[in-house]
Amino acid sequence: MRPGEYLTVVLHQTRSPDNLGAVARVMANFGFSRLILSDPATYSFRGAERLAVKGDAVLERMAVAKDLPEALTDCVYAVGTTSRTQLKGRTALTPEEAVRKLAEESQRGRVALVFGGEQRGMSDEELARCTDVLVIPTSDVQPSMNLAQSAAVLLYLCHRQGLVEPAPVAPQEGARLGTLNALAARMREVMLKAEFLNPQAPEHVLNELELTLMRARLTQREAELWLTAFKHLGRAVARGSSV
Amino acid sequence: MRPGEYLTVVLHQTRSPDNLGAVARVMANFGFSRLILSDPATYSFRGAERLAVKGDAVLERMAVAKDLPEALTDCVYAVGTTSRTQLKGRTALTPEEAVRKLAEESQRGRVALVFGGEQRGMSDEELARCTDVLVIPTSDVQPSMNLAQSAAVLLYLCHRQGLVEPAPVAPQEGARLGTLNALAARMREVMLKAEFLNPQAPEHVLNELELTLMRARLTQREAELWLTAFKHLGRAVARGSSV
User: Fold this and answer.
1) pTM for the full predicted model
2) CA–CA dist A136, B115 (Å, integer)
3) Which residues of chain A does B156 touch, with a Cβ-Cβ cutoff of 8 Å?
4) Do B137 and A159 touch (CB under 8 A)?
5) Which of A59, B77, B125, B139 is the most buried (most CB within 10 A)?
6) What is the location of CATH 3.40.1280.10 in chain A?
7) What residues does the tRNA/rRNA methyltransferase SpoU type domain cover (chains A, B) (predicted)?
8) Contacts of A133 (CB under 8 A, 6+ apart)
9) Closest CA to A67 of A23, A117, A120
10) Is A38 helix (H, G, I), strand (E, B) or coil?
11) Where in chain A are all domains bearing CATH 1.10.8?
12) pLDDT tens digits, chain B, 243 residues: what are they?
């Protein structure tokens, strides 16, 4: 990979061209070039160039994904940012911890830093698409940071951590989130069919299970094994229920 | 001092209300409340409130100074930010070093973080008004950061360093920059009269001398002693030249 491509910046449901431009500029400032818009809240991003100031190379290469799982599909690790300190069943990392993990995980493949929309940030469900969650500690008076300013803080720390070009080590192919999401979808389907999950509220238990697999830092091969296992289970369950 | 008042943020020759608002917001995010505009490039800052988002308390208390020396007059230490890596006779600190020094010096009195204008940043002459200089390391492709984003990076680091409320130690009253500037002005006058400085270009040598005094971290009493000494010298030189 070229320098600056280890880290993908994902903007989820971004609304403001100003913020997009400012994020592109600060990515250029710190040597990062991979930007993905996930389910953008608007497509009229004219005006972003004005604020991008030499970040236009970033904007030109920017990709758009229909949702968060699609945006993260080829990453092995993703950390989502939130200003909420009450998080269901998860412990938020500090920015420094998150950046250290991004650097470690970048040895296994692409990693992503995910920012929520300007108005509501990311829901628990959306954060569950990320391997980890981070909170930038702020004052109680005004806990909510501007999107482009959080990006500045975190990309500065990534730059300091040497994430632009991680030290080369023996590569170990980490499970891509695309595969892990396919696995989660399959698990859901199979476990619903098997009446293990409550059809009214399957997410809670499912997310807990998913998180354990994320924490296990599966290799791609292991994730594919799990996926194949659930395909088989699914067929077996379907056969059982049609008897 | 109340928490958040140890650090003064000085915006020198700021032009954009958007930047002002964004800086006020990020100050509120990280618990800082003292903002001074030095020689602002415009006075029509309507619109700043829109971006300040709960940073209005910061904007309401904001002071305006006619120039940098006036803005820094009651501080014992100031660090100026620049994106220039070629600096006459000075070695730039990294952000982490600068923030460590801000924390140390805040034991002696108020400290300031100074940002230059959007268009030209700060000149060598303006940076000479600051005790130290810092550079945020950036990529060669786009070295120049947006003002509000540099503020986000540095105020985050200040917040992490505990600068909002420094650990109480035996107070040692540091020399205020107002006194140090009065000293520098007096030195200039006396040394010009004494024909020690080149009247065509007195700054270079004078700045070198000033910097040694800044590095010495004078107490207020020591600075006043120096100032009194130069007043006496000035009178003596004037008597000599009128003979």
Assistant:
1) 0.77
2) 23
3) 95, 136, 153
4) yes
5) B77
6) 7-160
7) 7-156
8) A79, A80, A81, A82, A87, A90, A92, A93, A127
9) A117
10) strand
11) 177-242
12) 666 778 999 999 999 999 999 999 999 999 999 999 999 988 878 778 777 777 788 999 999 999 999 999 999 999 999 988 777 778 899 999 999 999 988 888 899 999 999 888 899 889 988 999 999 999 888 888 999 999 999 999 999 987 765 555 555 678 888 888 898 888 888 888 878 778 888 887 787 777 777 767 778 888 888 888 888 788 877 776 655
> Cβ–Cβ of B142/A22 closer than 8 Å?
no
CATH fold of the domain at A177-242: Helicase, Ruva Protein; domain 3 (1.10.8)
Contact predicate B223/B185, CB 8 Å: no
Tell me the HSE value of A160 on the side-chain side, using a 13 A CA sphere.
Answer: 17
Phi, psi of B201, deg, nearest 5: -145, 75
User: Following CA atoms A191, A194, A196, A197 in sequence, which dihedral angle do they give, to the nearest 10 degrees?
Assistant: 50
Contact B28 A139 (CB under 8 A): yes
- The alpha-carbon gap from B97 to the nearest alpha carbon of chain A, in Å, equals 13
The residues pairing with A110 across neighbouring beta strands, listed in sequence order, are A75
Tell me which of B141, B147, B154, B158 to substitute to probe the interface with A (most A C-beta atoms closer than 10 Å).
B141
- pLDDT, tens digit (0-9, with 9 covering 90-100), for B202-236: 887 787 777 777 767 778 888 888 888 888 788 87
Interface of B with A (CB under 8 A): 22, 25-26, 28-31, 51, 53-55, 57, 95, 136-139, 141-146, 148-153, 156, 159-160, 164
